[in-house]
Amino acid sequence: MRHDESAPPTPRRPGPAAAAALTVLCLGIGVSGCGGESGAQAQPGQGGAPVPSSATASAAASPATPSPARTSPAAPSKKPASPSPSTPATSSGPLSGKTVVIDPGHNPNNHLHTAEINRQVDIGTTHKECDTTGTSTNSGYAEARFTLDVSHRLRALLQAQGAKVVLTYDDDRAFGPCVDERARIGNKAGADAVVSVHADGSAAGNRGFHVILPASVRGGGADTSKIVGPSRDLGTRIAGLFVRATGSAPSNYIGGNTGLDTRKDLGGLNLSTVPKVFIECGNMRDPKDAALLTSAGWRQKAAQGIADGISSYLME
């Protein structure tokens, strides 16, 4: 995606560590059959950067191995009313008492408000654009429409388990929100987990999904030190269960086929004080991925995989 404030990272070609890295990812979350339904690995895209060794790839996934003693970051004792659309949870369920914020990437009308979305905002370590237009398939299916659709499906799945769900926006504003406001919505909600839904806009041949984790960042208004560990746990669980639900392979051009990538240049992560990840569900510019992303049936599977990952994290 041309998500939030920056262009996609430089593509990387996967190496022999791919199968081992995915195995570590699956074992790390303890999911039986994880990856077994994903089919063959996607073909490598075009890229020339070095590929992590199997030890490096394993290290990317293994820190997220859940521990029975895991303690989530403290949330505010009082959760202020959300400034964004939310709907009530069911009265009971395994996620009763939990708050999840879903952040549908971009806004379908951003392209009509270029001056507003190009405004610079403070992301703690530097300044970036308020938001971007996002990408689209070659046939014109906009990322912002995809993210809203998946987010609505995800909301329904989480609410059925008793969670309170807040959307950062619900196609109810002319543009944005800006990336700093998106982070504040999750923070003010005292969210137990936040997931920002996206799709990538890379070169054809680059396929698969990846989950973006916050790097350790401290500067200005940014301090991710308390959320790096919990966010990695959340992201690893989503990655493993996304494979199981969708049959999609991890990205063949980012993350060394682990399905995980860590970044420090995204305001939506830098400014978060609660566990948060991004998920790039696929590459809209690749015809094979685009066929999945434009399928309502596959989008339901994508929502299910994300919901399963969130539930696994929150019920640990």
Briefly summarize what is shown:
This protein is α/β, with parallel strands linked by helices and 316 residues long.
Strand content: 5-15%
> Low-confidence parts, pLDDT < 50 over ≥5 residues?
1-24, 31-84
Strand-pairing-aware structural class: alpha/beta
Helices and strands, in order, run as HHEEHEEHEHEEEEHEHEHH
Assembly annotation: single chain
List keywords for this structure.
alpha/beta, seven-stranded mixed sheet, 9 helices, globular, disordered N terminus
Protein described:
Helix content is 32%, strand content 15%. The protein has helices at residues 18-29, 54-61, 114-117, 143-159, 179-188, 228-246, 267-270, 287-293, 296-314, and strands at residues 86-87, 99-104, 120-122, 127-129, 164-167, 193-200, 210-214, 218-219, 222-223, 260-263, 276-283. A 7-stranded mixed sheet has the order 1-5-2-6-11-7-10, with helices on both faces.
Secondary-structure blueprint of this entry?
Elements: H1 18-29, H2 54-61, E1 86-87, E2 99-104, H3 114-117, E3 120-122, E4 127-129, H4 143-159, E5 164-167, H5 179-188, E6 193-200, E7 210-214, E8 218-219, E9 222-223, H6 228-246, E10 260-263, H7 267-270, E11 276-283, H8 287-293, H9 296-314
Parallel strand pairs: 2-5, 2-6, 6-11, 7-10
Antiparallel strand pairs: 1-5, 3-4, 7-11, 8-9
Helix pairs in contact: 1-2, 1-6, 4-9, 6-9
